[in-house]
Amino acid sequence: MEELVKELKQQLIDELNLEEMTPEDIDTEAPLFGDEGLGLDSIDALEIILILERNYGIKIENPAEGKEIFYSVDTLARYIESHRA
Amino acid sequence: MRVFITSDNIISALGFTTAENFAAITAYRSGIALTADKHISATPVMAATIERTTLEERAKALTDGGKYSPVEQLLILSITDTLQQQHLTRPEGSTALILSTTKGNVAALGGRNDIPDEAFLSHTARRVADYFGIAETDTYLISNACISGVSALIMAARLIDEGLYSKAIVAGCDVLSPFITSGFLSFKSVSPQCCRPYDAARNGLNLGEACGSVLLTSEYTPGGIAITGGSITNDANHISGPSRTGDGLFYAIRHAMDEAGVTPEEVDFVNAHGTATAYNDEMESKAIHLARLQQVPVDSLKPYFGHTLGASGVIESIICAHAMQQSMIPATLHFEQLGVPCPIVVEATHRTGVRTDVCVKTASGFGGCNAAIVLQKNASANRPRPQLAPIHAIAHCRIAGGEIVLDGQTLFSCDPDTPFATFIREAYKAIDGNNMKFYKMSDLGKTAYIATEVLLQKTPTFVPTEAGIILANRSASLDTDRRHQDIIDNEGEAAAAPAVFVYTLPNVAAGEVCIRHKIQGENTFFIGDTYQPDRLERYARSAMSRDGLQYCIVGWCDFLQGRYLADLKLFTTK
Predict the structure, then answer these.
(1) What's the whole-model pTM score?
(2) CA distance B430 to chain A (A)
(3) Of residues B287, B348, B275, the one with CA closest to residue B313
(4) What ipTM does the predicted assembly reach?
């Protein structure tokens, strides 16, 4: 799980162009979207869907489903753990 | 403003003439079908496509076997039909050509690594203008996402109203390719069924191909349909998602109706954008309420044509004009049950024999842009146009060769050979930038963002609706277009990245600026081979006078494969 959390943070930094951030800067429990936390938006959500498909073989068809799964790095990692192909 | 439509043509999945297209709509026939054509999409999609063999044959016959891309073929065929109805083969007198497209001949990028001449929008514009013998100085091309067609009609009407031209040809065109379909699929906004605007069961849009053209004139045409008002605005909210309040579209509708001098009670129907994505339709219902048009029938033509992008504003306006002549309000095909937060009047059957004197036509698009025009039958009075206000530049920012210069003073400089990525990052730090979103922008977006950040340094605060941005460049978004095409060429169409695709529209760079500085007025992006500041400033003056703008950013912003140039001025009427 710890490995996965670290790996996810690096993927978010690379794929979402979070310039000048390191995995240590991302709070595992903090919200990814909205004004607090990383301040990601709907385009980032679509990019996270791509990360899940490409890197973990997990398909999310309806972006609305992603809301709870994408709440934080922690919820994302838990979802991947239980759905990994 | 009172500018008449004298003749028109539509080429779409529903036929090669306006008559064929109108007959199909009257008969509730849709052009949307499942297509497995690999030139459209790797995976089968529901789309409204134009039969290419017929197109090719007709274009060849007309141009003596000339070699033209599908977009050029469509534009030449469509404009020829529109002119022939006026017994013309070439335009006569002072005629402007205003083209609208989002992606033009972008398919030329497929299966190669470079950017060929044919992929430039200005190349397409030049070939079409040359065919009809129209000079470069009389040719304009607007690429402003999905409002492009309505924007082009507004601009043409303004040029004629102000006496710069007696006639104008407006032509909008877009064709589909894996470039476009893969991008919309990555946005999860494409429906696997026929789209159902405003319906509770709607689940996305269908893409479509089309070309439409109109000949506009200042000459009074008894019983004719005239454009009597128009306005362009921005949500200043998000680069791809529509406003959550509908305020931007509402401002466009209100300005257009004010210019036309019509009240909500006088509007007979609204032909909206109606893409059938959840958020677009929701936003439109809010804007329609804000404009007090909730009692007025609203329809969307997308279930017939699909979303035809840069052509949509032109072809849908043409259908509105013909429907008005027939005293008919077209139905929204496949509509069953209303599913938008603010109740509006949508119908599944055509209304016939009704009053159709006034129509409001709207469009909205990526980059937060909105546009509205008013079409009128028997418009008796020609409301005098506003006196064009004098404008003057109060700031000038230039970014070129590793330097950022404001009003002749160098604010930042580095070695001119410094790679763009390093230059722009250091420049951003130097101006104390701390917006995380900056790093996600395309390089065109970053250039526009920093240039305006510097340009507006000393500007007093302004009312959002009283500020605008009018930009031009040569390369449109080709730098990002190349990136998007590389991804789908190398990794497959399913690998298309939304964060890249969203920047394959040049006006999204302007949209970033609108969000940052809360600019909600006129926003238009022109594409041309050369920077013609006089013409751009002339247009800015017109837009500023008509919509009461106090400030407008005007200029050139280009980025292509590491080469960049921004030259922006801030104009004011104060």
Answers:
(1) 0.96
(2) 15
(3) B275
(4) 0.84
